[in-house]
User: What shape does this take?
Amino acid sequence: MKDKALRLGTRRSKLAMAQSGQVADAVSQVTGRPVELVEITTYGDVSRESLSQIGGTGVFVTALRDALLRGEVDFAVHSLKDLPTAQPEELTLAAIPEREDPRDVIVARDALKFTDLPRGARIGTGSARRMAQLNAYARAHGLDIETVPIRGNVDTRIRYVRDGELDAVVLAAAGLNRIGRIEEVTDFLSVDTVLPAPGQGALAVECTADNAELIAALGELDDPFTRVAVTAERSLLAALEAGCSAPVGALADLLADGQIVKEMRLRGVVGTPDGARMVQLSTTGPVPETHDHALALGRELAAEMLAQGAAGLMGERAH
Assistant: This one.
């Protein structure tokens, strides 16, 4: 068994291949076994429809999970922000490695920063969450922008800017870091301006729940701080009854006093895509010591957001 290659299921996109390759190397190191990438095409990769029409980013996950359950691959790597909040009983998140930069970034023409874009600037994004927060910021600061819905991989999105169709596009810093293109970023958006998607920047390494040996090996890659943070963020998302394409931003960050982590702050936001109505709240408390404590933190903040009218801002609530 020791020499038999482990099969890692991955989407075919350049980003998915890059992040799966990084996990494959780490798994090889902890298990001493070779890891081969098995490319799986998902409906989300071939469909030209908008993500919200085909069921949100969960469409990228379904094909990988099906391959796991059929035994065609031993484990799979997902972008955590794409994972539906309900976890199938037959599968387990064996590892959530240390998180990359969770921020959103702008790639703009002429190396412009977000606040330096010209009046009427056209900014491309496929995310209602990003649209809501960019438009809200623009309203509050007297900027005149137009958010334009787009789809496609990183190359396609950046090409819109290079070809002059758009003034800027919004992407995730983590993805650009992983494919070695972070130098193309013209502005990092502070999380005070745009809260990221729940789990953004983190990866999820998933395998079948009955494979104890593999779960133990993959567990070596787990980062406990990242896990409690993203658990709280995803709990907030689930409690708002929102799918992964809903306009919800959330970030849990650890507040340290010197080297000692003292508390965790969870922030959440939901808004209409035009940015006219927003509910944004935060809560700070002790770092959750258990999975259930992290879940409770997310649920509590979601309850406060719902009390302030968050449900009405999400359009069709996902069930």
Observations:
- Residues 192 and 229 are 17 Å apart (CA to CA).
- DSSP finds nine helices and 13 strands in the chain.
- Residues 14-31 form the longest helix (18 residues).
- The radius of gyration is 19 Å.
